[in-house]
UniProtKB/TrEMBL annotation:
The lineage of its organism: Bacteria, Pseudomonadati, Pseudomonadota, Betaproteobacteria, Burkholderiales. The chain crosses the membrane at residues 43-70, 82-107, 119-139, 145-163. Keywords: Kinase, Membrane, Transferase, Transmembrane, Transmembrane helix. This is Histidine kinase. PANTHER family: SENSOR HISTIDINE KINASE YPDA. InterPro entries: Bact_2-comp_sensor_kinase, HATPase_C_sf, Sig_transdc_His_kin_internal.
């Protein structure tokens, strides 16, 4: 009877003290709306990515081509105007991108009005400087600098508007989106299974039960904390190890995990909670439906100056229930938002093995 009372007291203590202190208000507490950011996210000024540069170059070329087609008497005359316009627009664009990239931390600390003003002024100054340079090279007033300066400011505003929308896509705008994101990260039945496992271990192996609850608390701490733009691959590996430690308790000898980690790859920057959904996917579709269990292999390495992450899991002979693929789509989209075309995400199935490979810059 005393043991039952102690167990009940332990469960009450976890329910009444630990969980509220870890997660804040209970389920019935109203959600506090997140305030809209008073300034543009810092990611909007990260114009150093190859993908951003390529898109900006194509956009400027398009603007020059469309702007010079009006009034051109012939195709040859139009192509000549495009060449002259590009000789000003491309150096101006490169100068603007370099300045914004170098000053991105300073620009991110300004108010929104000052951010827009700075971006437009820099665009106008870059275009004006490029026009004056072209004028000095031609040796005659082939064109004035005021027109290109005004056009440069307008183009800079258009590019920054796109970068602003692109950066804000990384951050949920309201509580509903935030809760949906949390739900997709850690499935409810994983929480129930983990708590049931911990309750079973409380009397049989209290130390192990404490370890399971600590791992679970760390997973939820990361899941409900404010979104960081990026974390290191080492941090993601540590979190994935905690998740698999929990599942190891539940599946026992059915789950075999092999790690092959390169310390040099650990400094790569990746979106938060990148690996946990992937290893959870491997457990759900590779280990859980198989009576004999299976193997999950996680490998990190450096190749050609980039970090490569490979996750492979065995697949049972009988196909398990098909998934929606939301976890894979979510990871791919967040990689694209952080690294643009510099990141790669590939999935494939080789007979009885499902593989995921991620490549990110160091």
């Amino acid at each position: 009877m005393r043991d039952d009372n102690d167990a009940a007291a332990l469960r009450a203590r976890h329910a009444g003290v630990t969980l509220p202190s870890e997660f804040g208000a209970g389920p019935s507490a109203p959600a506090t709306p997140r305030r809209a950011p008073s300034r543009t996210p810092a990611a909007a000024f990260d114009v150093c990515h190859v993908g951003v540069v390529l898109r900006a170059v194509l956009f400027v070329h398009g603007v020059v081509a469309i702007g010079t087609v009006f009034g051109a008497p012939s195709v040859d005359a139009w192509l000549g105007r495009v060449a002259i316009g590009a000789s000003v627009a491309l150096p101006a664009l490169v100068l603007w991108l370099l300045v914004v990239c170098a000053c991105r931390n300073l620009l991110a600390r300004l108010t929104m009005a000052l951010q827009w003003s700075a971006v437009i002024v820099l665009g106008a100054a870059s275009a004006g400087a490029a026009a004056l340079l072209a004028l000095s090279l031609h040796g005659e007033a082939a064109f004035e600098w005021t027109g290109p300066a005004l056009a440069g400011g307008a183009v800079a505003a258009a590019i920054f508007a796109w970068l602003d929308l692109r950066a804000k896509a990384q951050f949920p705008a309201d509580t509903t989106a935030r809760l949906a994101e949390l739900q997709s990260r850690i499935r409810p039945h994983f929480l129930f299974n983990t708590l049931n496992t911990a309750l079973t271990l409380v009397r049989l192996d209290p130390a192990r039960a404490e370890g399971v609850l600590e791992d679970l608390a760390e997973l939820f701490r990361v899941a409900i904390s404010d979104n960081a733009e990026s974390v290191t691959l080492d941090e993601e590996v540590a979190l994935a190890q905690r998740y698999l430690d929990i599942e190891q308790v539940r599946f026992g000898s059915r789950l075999h995990v092999n790690w092959e980690l390169d310390p040099e790859a650990g400094r790569a920057r990746v979106p938060p909670l990148l690996l946990q959904p992937l290893v959870e996917n491997a457990v759900r579709h590779g280990i859980e439906p198989s009576p004999d269990g299976g193997v999950i292999r996680i490998r990190t390495r450096v190749k050609l100056g980039r970090a490569v992450v490979s996750i492979a899991n065995s697949v049972p002979d009988e196909a398990s229930r098909p998934g929606s693929g939301m976890a894979l789509k979510n990871v791919k989209e967040r990689l694209r938002l952080l690294h643009d075309v510099a990141a790669q995400f590939e999935t494939r199935r080789d007979f009885d093995v499902f593989r995921v490979q991620i490549v990110v810059p160091l």
